[in-house]
Structure of Lytic murein transglycosylase:
Amino acid sequence: MKIRFAVAFAAAVLAAPIASTAVSAAQCGGDFDTFVAEMSREAAANGVSQGVISQALGGVHQDQAVLSFDRRQRGTFRKSFEQYVATRVTGGRIKGGKAMLTRHGSLLSRIEKQFGVPPEIIVAIWGLETDFGRGDMGKLPVFRVLATMAHDCRRTELFQRELLAALRIVQRGDLRLSDMVGAYAGEIGQTQFLPSSYIKYGVDFDGNGHVDLRHSVPDVLASTANLLKVNGWKAGGDYHQGSPNFEVMREWNRSEIYRRTIGYFADKLAGR
């Protein structure tokens, strides 16, 4: 769940659940090609086909820009809530969010009935993450990013799991290899799911047999709601600071300012 601000994307990574796939940790920090070969063997042992492994990891190289970004961004919000929300919840974005509530009203009603999450919360998250899917979903090759981060010894086990989860997304046929493009921690799609979250919470809400969080609005919005529901969202409950649902949103992002911004945006969309 990416934050477009001077915030550690590490916070988003830490907020995401770890995939259940077992990982026998490959040796980080040594020769990169040897590390990728070890990860390839681990992927095969977890049921990923040699074709997918070869296409995804063949010729992958270390990305120093990803490591540099990671080291720069491991801080906290440097603005107050008032300063931050003024840059993110603009008049144009509120107008766009209300248009989305209208355009997808029937879909959002079905999602609320099934998952208990109100439309304004889902649309607020959607708007903050990628401007309702119209904004930047990231331009970096996911496998290069995740292999780079997994090879780095600071959080190698976490990112090894993310790398295996990303391979499973392609193995399942949810996304093509060309669609595996994302942000600086490997986040994917219109609400910026890490691969492990994609596997754990992704919902095929359009019924086409695949979970597509890049192109399918029904899948995107239902999966976003499902993440909150699975982590304890209470239908009809308050979502402001101090409420149980506000704490549930820690599973989306641990930053209190970001969660307050979701609530503030949702209030504006609901006319409050």
Q: What stands out?
A: Residues 81-135+205-269 form a domain with the Lysozyme fold (CATH 1.10.530.10). Confidence is low (pLDDT under 50) at residues 2-22.
